[in-house]
Write a structure and sequence with these properties.
Strand content: 15-25%
Number of helices: 22
Bound molecules: CIS-heme D hydroxychlorin gamma-spirolactone
Distance between the termini: 63 Å
Helix content: 25-40%
Length: 720
């Protein structure tokens, strides 16, 4: 292979060097110049009580560095968590793409994945109602490929020129910087009410998808239609999907708000701990392929990012899986400094003309320049490709590479012609030669004008409980608004999605449903575009798409689920231990929670170690509750208001609750007991609602695997 060794970035060498200077493990404390430090406790002073001397370079260096430790947070997706892992191909895609990492089944490609919320600041809560970012950097042998997607398959706007408006509207309002990490405020809904194209994504954002139980339990989507290009320069359209092996699961809105207070790092901790305990998160990777000849066969435009391709129309083909198996060593160096870009592609993957994607291609490098401070951000270890880098780019702030030699231009003879251009057959990237012959226009295609039919498809595809949650989410969000006309405009828009949805939301807000046509056109500024692209009436054949509901998701495992065991002195050790062992054997994690830390004395006198007290534990941080036998324990806990609250909350949030023997007395004092046990319902019915009395561990495990018993909301009149 033709190469110039001199111009090569030696990744390994630089990493080693970085470790030598930065790790400091087992070494003496030094200054940044490598000088050993003798005293890091006291600054240099003129006398014991004297003024600090300007001469103290050690103090100056330490404080100066500290003063500059913060970098601008991401303008969006500021709060995130990431991990290392790998992608393993199971089905060759060689028919469609020449991308090397998608050729041979069994090929493993290192990845780093970062998950994020969109609107909140770096220090905001994980459980905000929000779309989640799902970005994966594949370190392929041909260079880095970034798939920068979200956990919902569609986007709020159709053209990148609207992105700053969308984000200004959703971020805290500029006059008072409120509210943080929340869309429930006037500016966001004002924008939405004037932007009908946002309605499909709004339906997703108001659904439980916006409240994941875990980052490990959410789907990911590339959102845009991309292109695969094969060796013969033939292209197909492709949409990318990540499907979590543990299924797609969410928490309830009341729960999400409480988790934000009890543990704002809930998702970050969950991801970290799962990896630390060897429960590596896994996603299957899938593609939907559309032949070029079929580009116009759908009742929506493939280039419109507010539309998905229903899986019933084009099935998702699973072609590999991603496993995250290593936590970062250093949050800042890796998770914070990683720089994604939808324009980081490899040969065989190309762009479609989706106007949102096209605009993104500009934004990402631009933002890294101000966020990471230099055009050399690709040299930060987490951003370096494993493929060697040779080019004539030089210098700039914080340049790491020491390029040797006289030549920094092309063509040249001084460097022996190096580095050479690669032909397509040598892996050189060649853009797909799509024919474009067009006039310059500032307009939007008519084929993008259907704003509501997929919003309706989404709503119709939800289970009854999911629909109820959507209604309540709208009632909550719109209920927080201060401007009545915005509220009314949104409800008017909802009538276009589903009349019953609009009526129910209106009822909760105490307003009348107004005429949609009027609503959509009134109060729209004269220069506002939306009225010019009012909706096209499309009547898709597909009325329901099962893949859009979480109700039918995978429910076959309790791996990594958190189970609370409430106990006090006098607990029956056998009853406690037998269930604990069975749950742990099935992969769950159990915590014994009592009124104090330390030990409790079992009925037989044995000491049992307590994991958490009622002060530090919270019902919302667990997936299920077990109340073991033991008359004294149950009686002591009935006098413990926190224990009763714990069970009541688990009941309200529709979680599985099991009681053994005397544990049932405790249950009797709670809403769960009152609603179910005391109404003398048949035992079968208790089970159907996830309340288990004296049932075996297998039955409890099945109930936990069910995730939630949303039926309880209606049957027992509780609102999760
Ligand atoms: Fe974006 C970050 C996903 C539209 C401009 N975006 C960012 C991240 C994700 C997405 C997951 C965080 C990456 C990370 O973890 O570092 N963005 C999307 C998706 C979109 C989308 C799925 C639509 C389909 N984004 C979009 C548009 C623009 C941007 C239309 C601008 C024209 N996005 C950015 C950005 C960010 C970003 C300002 C902020 C931090 C960063 O890039 O690195 O450039």
């Amino acid at each position: 292979m033709r190469t110039t060794k001199k111009a090569e970035t030696d990744n390994t060498k630089t990493v080693d060097l970085a470790q030598n200077t930065e790790s400091g493990q087992g070494e003496f404390l030094t200054t940044n110049q490598g000088l050993r430090i003798n005293d890091d406790q006291n600054s240099l002073k003129a006398g014991e009580r004297g003024a600090t001397l300007l001469e103290d370079f050690q103090l100056r260096e330490k404080i100066t560095h500290f003063d500059h430790e913060r970098i601008p947070e991401r303008i969006v997706h500021a709060r995130g968590s990431g991990a290392h892992g790998y992608f393993e191909l199971s089905e060759s895609m060689s028919q469609y793409t020449k991308a090397k990492f998608l050729q041979t089944p069994g090929t493993r490609t290192p990845v780093f994945a970062r998950f994020s919320t969109v609107a909140g600041s770096r220090g905001s809560s994980d459980l905000a109602r929000d779309v989640r970012g799902f970005a994966v950097k594949f370190y392929t042998e041909e260079g880095n490929y970034d798939l920068v997607g979200n956990n919902v398959p569609v986007f709020f706007i159709q053209d990148a020129i609207k992105f700053p408006d969308l984000i200004h509207a959703v971020k805290p309002e500029p006059n008072n910087e409120m509210p943080q990490a929340a869309s429930a405020h006037d500016t966001f809904w004002d924008f939405v009410s004037l932007t009908p194209e946002s309605m499909h994504t709004i339906m997703w954002a108001m659904s439980d998808r916006a409240l994941p139980r875990s980052l490990r339990m959410m789907e990911g989507f590339g959102v845009h239609t991309f292109r695969f290009v094969n060796e013969n320069n033939e292209s197909v359209f492709v949409k990318f999907h990540w499907k979590p092996v543990l299924g797609v699961h969410s928490v309830a809105w009341d729960e999400a708000q409480k988790i934000s207070g009890k543990d704002s790092d809930f998702h970050r901790r969950d991801l970290w701990e799962a990896i630390e305990t060897g429960n590596f998160p896994e996603w299957n990777f899938g593609v939907q392929i559309v032949e070029e000849k079929d580009e116009f066969k759908f009742d929506f435009d493939l280039l419109d990012p507010t539309k998905l391709i229903p899986e019933e129309i084009v099935p998702v083909q699973i072609i590999g899986k991603m496993v995250l198996n290593r936590n970062p060593e250093n949050f800042f160096a890796e998770t914070e400094q990683i720089a994604f870009h939808p324009g980081h592609v490899v040969s065989g993957i190309d762009f479609s003309n989706d106007p949102l994607l096209q605009g993104r291609l500009f934004s990402y490098t631009d933002t890294q320049l101000s966020r990471l401070g230099s055009p050399n951000f690709h040299e930060i270890p987490i951003n370096r490709p494993i493929a060697p880098v040779h080019n004539n780019q030089r210098d700039g702030h914080m340049r790491q590479t020491i390029n040797e030699g006289q030549s920094s231009y092309h063509p040249n003879t001084t460097g022996g012609g190096c580095p050479f251009q690669a032909k397509a057959a040598e892996g050189g990237f060649v853009s797909y030669n799509e024919q474009i012959d067009a006039r310059k226009v500032r307009t939007r295609s008519q084929s993008f004008f259907d704003h509501f039919s997929q919003a309706t498809l989404f709503f119709n595809s939800q289970s009854e409980a999911e629909k109820n949650h959507i209604v309540n989410a709208f009632r909550f969000e719109l209920g927080k608004l201060e401007t009545a006309s915005i509220r009314e405009r949104v409800v008017g828009m909802l009538t276009k999605v589903d009349k019953e949805l609009a009526a129910r939301v209106a009822e909760g807000l105490g307003i009348q449903v107004s005429q949609p046509e009027q609503d959509l056109n009134q109060n729209i500024p004269a220069d506002g575009d939306p009225k010019d692209y009012q909706s096209l009436n499309v009547h898709p054949e597909l009325k329901i798409s099962k893949a859009l509901s979480m109700a039918g998701t995978v429910k076959d495992s309790i791996k990594t689920r958190q189970i609370a065991i409430l106990a006090a002195d006098g607990v029956d050790e056998n009853s406690l231990n037998a269930m604990k062992k069975a749950l742990e054997a099935a992969g769950a994690q159990t915590k014994i929670i009592a009124s104090h830390l330390g030990f409790i004395a079992a009925e037989n006198g044995n000491q049992i170690i307590v994991d958490q007290s009622f002060l530090t534990a919270a019902s919302v941080l667990f997936d299920a509750v077990y109340l073991p036998d033991g008359a004294k324990s149950a009686s002591l806990l009935t006098d413990e208001p926190d224990a009763i609250d714990f069970i009541n909350e688990a009941f309200k949030h529709c979680k599985a609750i099991a009681a053994d023997g005397a544990g049932a007395y405790l249950l009797d004092l709670t809403a769960a007991g009152n609603k179910i046990r005391n109404e003398n319902k048949a035992e079968k019915e208790h089970m159907a609602y996830g309340i288990l009395l004296n049932r075996n561990s297998k039955e409890f495990i099945n109930a936990i695997a069910n995730h939630r018993f949303w039926e309880r909301e209606k049957a027992c009149n509780v609102l999760a």
